[in-house]
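To fix ideas at the outset, we first show an illustrative case, written as a sequence plus integers encoding its fold:
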Amino acid sequence: MSKKIITPVSALADILPKDYQDLVTEGPHGKSLGIQNLGTFKEITEEHPHCAGCGVSLGVRLVLAALPAPEDTLIVGTPGCSFFALSQTSLNYATSAFGNQNAVASGLKRMLKIRYPEQIKDVVVMVGDGGIADIGLDLTLHSWFRGENITTIMLDNEVYGNTGGQESGMSSQGRVLSMAPKGKNFPKVPVFELARTSGCVYGSKVTVADPKRIGQSVVKAILIARKLGPTYVQIYTPCPTNLKFNPSETISIAWKAQKDHYAFEEFITEEAAELMAARAAT
């Protein structure tokens, strides 16, 4: 894909901060980079508006670094904390109404197949737990039922991070939050299990404490979605602001979760496994 769509017009060249211009000149487009190269290219502006220690912004950075073809990737988002980071990148990014992201992504993927029949265009949904597990659960599930060739990535901070820390369907049972003063009274919505039984051909559950596995999961999910159907990656991205821990503890909190309720899990259909094995053999 041409960089024209992400390159600032000449009229703005002298007033747009260099931080933004560097996203194009120093970005990962067309360079076959990955998680292991993080720090050698610019995937997000340095002064993005997230809180210190934000797990979501870290999750976004790790996913962006892992995209197999960032120049040919369209990210679909929805209102929430993830929006603030994604709007500070040089990727093609579309925001939908809250919860509509998988329906929008389905239409965009179908359109891109028609518009570019000889090229691969990856469509990736990347939103928070509220957008997928709560308001957008029905549209998410139906995109999986239909077998859409899209990847869905949940940035799960287990709370409504940008509206004051209310409980989410993905909050852990018993967690005390702004609108759960006695603790949330039901378990996490089992979205990972729903993905397995609703048509996803690959799924992974991981935390921001494990960048290597995030990179591997994102690459697998996108490559498999191109050929076989919907895939799902669920990433734990803890929120220091609303879960009330020190911003310097984000990785340690994620690591503890990985040893407890957020242990790494992965499922893959036989056909998807054969596809990845054939790709590795070439």
